[in-house]
UniProtKB/TrEMBL annotation:
It comes from the Bacteria. The lineage of its organism: Bacteria, Thermotogati, Deinococcota, Deinococci, Deinococcales. This is Sporulation protein. It comes from Deinococcus wulumuqiensis.
């Protein structure tokens, strides 16, 4: 009977289970996710070589969306888990710069897995709400002060780095555009913001295309960010008008 249980556990039946329990599933970029990983023994004793935690998202590839691991870290090294035993391991997981924000169109989730000697590795996934750090939050709030509504996002690879483009709907009748897109990149002393304005073609141009895209670059210094969204809103409005 013991041999049969071991054989079944080796293929995942009656094996140990892992479950990550977050204290809060919302976290700001630059802060930490905190919680515990609960490991519950199965029908036989097993050796857990390592518990791993990581953050995962998906990005738009050439033809399809690709699941991408942002990072994975070991939480605890080897231990044995007896049948029915429950063990808890607290964790603190930093959320680094470059982690995409969870906006419509972009998901981020915590992945927990255990390396089991001679058996199927169990896993667990939990959605995570990633909120902006202070710098990006100030730029987003500036756009919202102007009446723009954050409507979605797209994550892509750009020059070997994962980047996120945020899309905003303009306030009705105030700007000659259909969409504003912002890509914010950390830079020394502030943020590099790439603005893209989509606007409808009019006149003769509308015979050949329905929309134009115009791009601009805007360096927002730490000093400007520290003065808050109202100041940034004035400059953002002027830059959008120039592009549109």
């Amino acid at each position: 009977m013991g041999f049969f249980k071991k054989m079944m556990a080796a293929v995942g039946v009656g094996a140990a289970r892992v479950d990550a329990r977050l204290h809060r599933n919302a976290v700001r970029v630059g802060d930490e996710l905190q919680g515990v990983v609960v490991v519950t023994g199965g029908s036989v004793e097993q050796r857990i070589e390592r518990l791993n935690l990581g953050l995962t998202t998906r990005f738009r590839g050439d033809d399809e969306y690709v699941v991408h691991t942002l990072f994975s870290l070991p939480v605890v090294s080897g231990f044995d888990i007896r049948p029915g035993e429950v063990r808890e391991f607290p964790f603190r997981l930093p959320v680094p710069q470059g982690t995409p924000l969870t906006v419509r169109g972009t998901d981020v989730w915590l992945v927990t897995d255990a390396d089991i000697a001679g058996g199927v590795d169990p896993g667990d996934t939990d959605p995570v709400q990633v909120l902006p750090d202070a710098a990006r939050g100030t730029v987003i709030e500036a756009a919202q002060r102007l009446g723009f509504v954050l409507s979605g996002s797209e994550v892509e690879f750009h020059r070997g780095h994962l980047v996120q483009e945020l899309s905003f709907r303009p306030p009705s009748g105030q700007y000659r555009l259909t969409e504003l897109e912002l890509l914010m990149l950390p830079a020394h002393g502030g943020l590099d913001v790439i603005l893209e304005v989509d606007r409808r073609a009019t006149g003769m141009a509308s015979l050949f295309t329905s929309e134009f895209e115009t791009k601009g670059r805007w360096f927002v210094s730490d000093a400007q960010l520290a003065q808050g969204p109202d100041l940034l809103a004035h400059e953002l409005a002027e830059r959008v008008r120039r592009l549109s």
